[in-house]
Amino acid sequence: MTERGAEAVPPMKSLRRWLHADLRVVAPFVALGALVLLGALVSDRFLTVDNLVNVATRSAFIAIIAVGATFVIAGGGLDLSVGSMAALIAGVMIFVMNGLGAPAPANAFFATLSTLFGSSPMGILAAGILLALLLGALCGLANGVVTTFGRIEPFIVTLGTMGIYRGLIIWLAAGGTITMRSVELRELYRPVYFGSIAGVPVPILIFLAIAAAGALLLYRTPFGRHVVALGSSEDVARYSGVPIARVRVLTYVIQGVCVALAILVYVPRLGSATPTTGLLWELQAITAVVIGGTMLKGGTGRVWGTIAGAVILELVANIMVLSDLVSEYLVGAVQGAIIIVAMLVQRGLHRRQ
Amino acid sequence: MAPILSAHRISRSFGPVEVLSDISFGLEPGEVHAVIGENGAGKSTLMRILSGHLQPSKGALEFRGEPVRFSGPVEAERRGIVLVHQEILLAEDLTVSENLFLGRELRRFGLTDKQAMRESTRAALARLGARIPPDAQVRGLSIAERQFVQIARALLVPHQVVIFDEPTAVLTPIEAEALFTTIRRLKADGIAVLYISHRLAEVKAIAERVTVLRDGQLVATRDASSLEPVEMARLMVGRDLSKLYPDKPAAGSRDMVLSVTGASVPGFVHNASFELHRGEILGFGGLVGAGRTELLEGLVGLRSFRGEVILEGREVRFRNAGEALASGVAYLTEDRKGKGLLLQQDLRVNLTLAALERFTRGPLIDAAAEDRALDGALRNFDIRARRRNMLAGQLSGGNQQKLLLAKMMLVEPRIIIIDEPTRGVDIGTREQIYQFIARLAAQGRSIIVISSEMPELIGLCDRVLVMRNGRITGEVPGEDLSEDAIVFLATGVHEDKAAAIAAGVA
Which residues in chain A touch residue B357, judged by CB atoms under 8 angstroms apart? Predict the structure, then answer.
């Protein structure tokens, strides 16, 4: 073989290897592209900048939550409580901001917060944001600590906390709705969902930033490596000196913080929380993670795939609304079917490897 | 006499690797035919082909003079070929009799007939010389008792050919003798017995003919009466055995690096004490289940542990493997696939997992440094990987062991505990691993080797501690190392006495 021939072969070979080895990584993006094509075919209103930006914006909540779920699932865990947790955080955040906005503090708790953050709308908003993040971290911590130290299946623990968090928000709202009262505060907070920077809506910027941070944490830090090791085999991680308890608890804390971040984007949209806020979000988040190529048994995590998964879910809903093929009331059924199909595809690709 | 089961030029490949090539041999009714060979010689593969678990890639089997092709173990069993597995495959939560009849329950009016199954179980176990209550839960049985339950289960189906895969690995000599009595009875009934073992004295005692495998090839089939254990070993290894092990240096230093006093691991180890010196290779011998693994796992914080541990003059207490590694004590598990390596991850991730903090730049992993470490490990440990990005699970057993060694050496331990260093490792790689262990000791590191391979303990170690039933029963110093000395401490009985005692018991 000549020199030139020898040089010509490797790129082909490496291309083929790349296609073979990373089919599972590419699959969600291929599916995303196929859906965009499908959408363009069934409706001429689909392929417009406005519509696509709208879809991406609406997928922000699930995308942000699903980035956290990627950590939990990659580490071999599961969190079913994210939807209830979202409702609880939204409710508490609005409740606290309303309390701080009241003419006179209702109790010592609000009085202390008031002296810390002042009573300007900016101070109240800062207090609400910090409290939401803190509460998210605490809810995640509770899931993580009970799962890890109680040695209980995460399915059971988070099924329990799912009920607890949901019950707490229903109690806090007395079965009704908690709405942001201060108009001033609403105006101040509004741009976080409705604003845009350089033409890109803020929620999209936020979820891209969170995904980038998540990818960096999962792929490039020792902690991320430990998460994957733990999800691959808890025994191997333990025998290799990985601090498995700390790593596991932290994945749930990250999940909790991600839920809080999603809520920070969600609250300015509607300005209220109800007992049905976040209903079935856990299903959507887990579906996004699985569509994205992360395996439910742990050991792999694909942050960008998860983002693609979240957008796919929203695209499907959007196409259903725009077209007359299937009633939009069946969105839940279609999304449920997608997770099953995604698992089947994953299994098929795994076999081929 | 015509063979009942014979193999004609069978070969078996897994992917490109041929693990068995061109094997022909026959098994006659009423004979005990031993198959011996090193780890990885192809014994298990041959046995799995004969019992229908695997198909040969080439060649054919003949049963009673007719060509057969088993679609699976069920079909082989239907023809009377049964296999007694080496691993214990029993449902722990079921009782002895439920296990014996699992999948073939006796029925009466459509319901299971517990009484009849209980009676048959009692009778079947009595024939083996084992007294185990039929209603006992398997979870509560010792490993030897479980082995007998497993044998009784295999012999429950009508059988013409019985294949035993290293049945005595977990038995004391007295229990082994009880098993031999059973085998002799099978032989007297005209049953053909295929007996796989690497305990050569035992093979000499029980077998009529011996077939030796080496590297997937049949080296010889001889009458046992004309073959001494030393000759068997030479045939198995293919060269002088003494070359396998590195030279032992003159007595090492007496600097104590580790002293353990009154160590207990609840349920496994009671009051164990020992010392380890600088540059020494200390062996731990004993039967499977004697508590060796548990003692050392407890020491490095992988199990609950009580007792005083003095490391280099300081009292220490490791709460987890991370603390032990940080103090320079590394434990390499015997269970490479389950606890040693992430089979679904690539070589790089596996290599640096235990020492990840050495591969960071700021808060991030330094991938370039990891790649350099992988280059070094592939070179220094002679890890044969087809591709750098292959998964650890795709490596052969020997290369996995080398990867595990490389992984743990990255933390630069001063004390290295290696549990079954050559389990499932081919002969060529074994020699490399022994050389490597000797080199570590020569560097002044201290090594503990846990092994169930007696030649390995004798060939490699400066001295050997022996455990039985969770206690250290004694120490065999280097100059006195012999199989009998270890067996005596491991079982409380000398090899030659066991037969007499078993005869008295039976």
Answer: 222
Residues of B in contact with A240 (CB under 8 A): 321, 353-354, 407
**Chain B contact probe: residue of A216, A232, A236 with most B CBs at under 10 A:** A236
Q: Does A21 reside within a domain? A: no
> Which domain CATH number covers B209?
3.40.50.300
Q: How many beta carbons lie within 10 A of that of residue A199, not counting itself?
A: 7
Q: Per the structure, how many domains does chain A have?
A: 1
How many distinct structural domains can be found in chain B? 2
The phi, psi pair for B404, rounded to 5°, reads -65, -40
In a domain, A119, yes or no: yes
Are residues B327 and B469 located together in one domain of the fold?
Answer: yes
Which positions 373-392 of B are in contact with A (Cβ < 8 Å)?
A: 389
Give the separation between CA A126 and CA A120, rounded to whole angstroms. 10
The answer to whether B250 contacts chain A (CB < 8 Å) is no
For B363, which residue in chain A has the nearest alpha carbon? A221
ipTM comes to 0.85
Question: Containing domain of residue A260, as a range?
Answer: 42-352
Q: Which of B242, B276, B301 is the last residue of a domain?
A: B242
Point out the residue among B321, B357, B365 whose CB comes nearest to the CB of A238: B321
Please write the tens of the pLDDT for every residue from A114-166. 888 888 889 999 999 999 999 999 999 999 999 999 999 999 999 999 999 99
Give the strand order in the sheet containing B192-196: B81-84, B161-165, B192-196, B32-36, B209-214, B217-223
Is there a domain that residue B506 lies in? no
Task: Name the residue range of residue B40's domain.
Answer: 5-242
Contacting residues for B208 by C-beta, under 8 A, at least 6 apart:
B31, B32, B33, B223, B224
A332 within domain boundaries: yes
Q: Rounded to the nearest 10 degrees, what angle do helices A23-42 and A331-352 cross at?
A: 140
Predicted TM-score of the model (pTM):
0.82
B266-306, pLDDT tens digit by residue?
989 999 999 999 999 999 998 877 899 999 999 999 999 99
